[in-house]
Amino acid sequence: MANARPTVDGIAVVNLASPEEQSGAESAAAARARRLKTARDAVGRAPSRWLLRASAAWWRSLQYVGMTLHFLAPERPPSPSFSKTIRSTISKTEGEFSLQFYTPEGYETAAKTGTKFPAVVNFHGGGFTIGSATDDARFGRFVLKECNAVFVSVNYRLSPEHPFPVAVEDAADALLYLIRSGPELLIDPSKLATSGFSAGANLAITSTLRLADHLETLRQAGTQVPDHRIRAVATWYPITDYTEPRALKRAASVRPDQTLPETLTSLFDACYLHPPDLPLDSCYLSPSMATDEHLAAAIPQTVIFFTCEHDMLMQEGEALAKRLREPPISKDVRYKMIKGVAHAWDKSPDPTKPAEYSEDLYRECCGYLSEAFEKP
């Protein structure tokens, strides 16, 4: 079926799967029967947290080398203009994390004219275990130029030191900070969007769910929340459902040999999915498990999905995009599957050139974001 899909400039453009395309899929009852219920089901016997920290440190060092090479390819991405360290207010795990601000042309003089910019709040990938806020600077370059927006990338706290739900609470806290302090930073709180890659794409979605619930709690307590509006969510190869076993996802991939290795995904899951009795159907962990009512109320109207043909996460991303598009949720969904590429292909460590298709797709995504910012 994948080979029959139309392409534009070599990039597969995919309509969301119709019921006919899904004929022959397993029954709903069979799908429910295979669901994982708790972290123990996904991870097995809980590994030593000390050993997980050591393993995470090793992979973080490899990630640093890979991203250093990634940044060497022309045109080199920008560096942050400034950063802010903020304290967590939502999480029960006290602490702080940083926001990296990349600013567009004209930002330095905007205070004199009273200009306020849209902002794209970004969450990096890495299985909630590795990576940093600067990893998506290549995408940020297009946000600055194509959207004329501030790119705010979040250094949320990582696991295993800070397992679920700290990352999603930090993500929601970052949005709350910009809602409250945006005008001081020349950011218009009525023109916010979220974006993210892989684990960060999960946060781009779940942060809006967590924020909506937190704001409702604040309102019930009589706390005033400044006017704001999240206009769009842009997700790149997201993980949306932890209740489906990784082995089944990998087996269902068009190219199982091209999916992330089990060594890495097992580490990520063991680090993030803790404690062992953690329910995997939490909407803050598996947004595919959220109710229609919750998704309709918390997710902004514009939703952008990019998935990868050779990724084990492709099918769940496509399924959630389809669900968000259809009634009763009825969001404005832009979906594209990129043919012939694996998960996180755009983070290629090739120092000679950017990953194939990546810049065109970054530009396309920013076009959708600009449209969302410009709507009344």
TrEMBL record:
PANTHER family in UniProt: AB HYDROLASE SUPERFAMILY PROTEIN C4A8.06C, ALPHA_BETA HYDROLASE FOLD-3 DOMAIN-CONTAINING PROTEIN-RELATED
InterPro entries attached to this UniProt entry: AB_hydrolase_3 (IPR013094), AB_hydrolase_fold (IPR029058), GDXG_lipolytic_enzyme (IPR050300)
Keyword annotations: Hydrolase
Highest taxon listed in the record's lineage: Eukaryota
All residue ranges annotated as the Alpha/beta hydrolase fold-3 domain in the record: 120-345
Gene Ontology MF: a single term: hydrolase activity
Organism: Thermothelomyces thermophilus (strain ATCC 42464 / BCRC 31852 / DSM 1799) (Sporotrichum thermophile)
Coiled coil: none
Keyword Ligase among record annotations: no
Protein name, UniProt field: Alpha/beta hydrolase fold-3 domain-containing protein
